Amino acid sequence: MYNKKAVCIGIVILVALLSSPFWVGLFGTDYKETGVVKPNQDACVEDAAFMRAQHMRLLNEWRDQALRNENRTYVAANGKKWEISLQNTCMKCHTNYAGFCQKCHLSNSVSPYCWTCHIIPTEGK
Ligand code: HEC
Ligand code: HEC
Ligand code: HEC
Fold it and tell me: Cα 41 vs. chain centroid, distance in angstroms?
């Protein structure tokens, strides 16, 4: 005794759910907007949209540059130079780790393992 209509709707919903990581990605909102506390500076190293989507890759690139190529200077798209340092660059502006990095990560179920070695800023906790 199946209700065919209900089964069809069920399948459509299932397919939509399973493929959602794919089609949500197409519209560029692949994670939740969280109302993070932004620092009191004009701008990030790169623009906000780029940072939102690419900061993990940027950090990997920074680490590789610093450790493999001994290059400690990053030249941003706008030509501005930054010291390659998680601690002294990123976290100097983003002092509110709990209200910024962590807030967004928690609501997206990401937990970067960086802080077993790198130091979490405690200001604004
Ligand atoms: C000079 C200060 C400064 C530095 C250095 C800096 N940021 Fe930012 N960051 C900001 C500001 C200000 C914003 C908000 C920009 C906006 O909304 O236009 C921001 C935005 C971001 C965002 C996007 C947040 C959102 O709106 O979703 C991420 C992620 C981020 N920063 C991570 C980093 C990382 C990782 C580093 C180091 C590679 C870094 N920031 C270095 C000031 C800085
Ligand atoms: C607006 C949301 C948001 C903010 C703010 C944010 N992140 Fe993230 N971060 C994410 C998401 C989502 C991922 C996972 C994305 C992925 O895997 O593609 C991530 C992944 C990472 C990763 C890689 C983790 C892994 O295991 O691969 C690192 C490192 C990281 N973030 C560092 C930071 C740091 C440092 C800050 C603060 C300066 C920060 N993030 C702020 C959303 C955010
Ligand atoms: C097992 C310990 C360890 C872990 C875990 C770790 N790092 Fe590092 N990282 C180091 C050490 C040691 C250096 C070298 C410091 C130096 O030479 O200045 C470094 C350097 C870096 C650098 C370049 C130099 C600097 O001062 O920032 C970046 C960027 C970086 N790590 C990012 C990350 C990110 C992002 C994560 C998490 C996804 C992470 N690291 C996890 C130990 C670690």
Answer: 19
Phi/psi at 103 (nearest 5 deg)?
-60, -45
* Cβ of 62 below 6 Å from ligand 3: yes
**Pocket residue to mutate for ligand 2, from 51, 104, 114, 125, most atoms within 8 A of Cβ:** 104
Give the amino acid at 85: S
Average pLDDT over residues 2-27: 62
Question: Which tens digits make up the pLDDT trace of 36-74?
Answer: 888 888 899 999 999 999 999 999 999 999 999 999 999
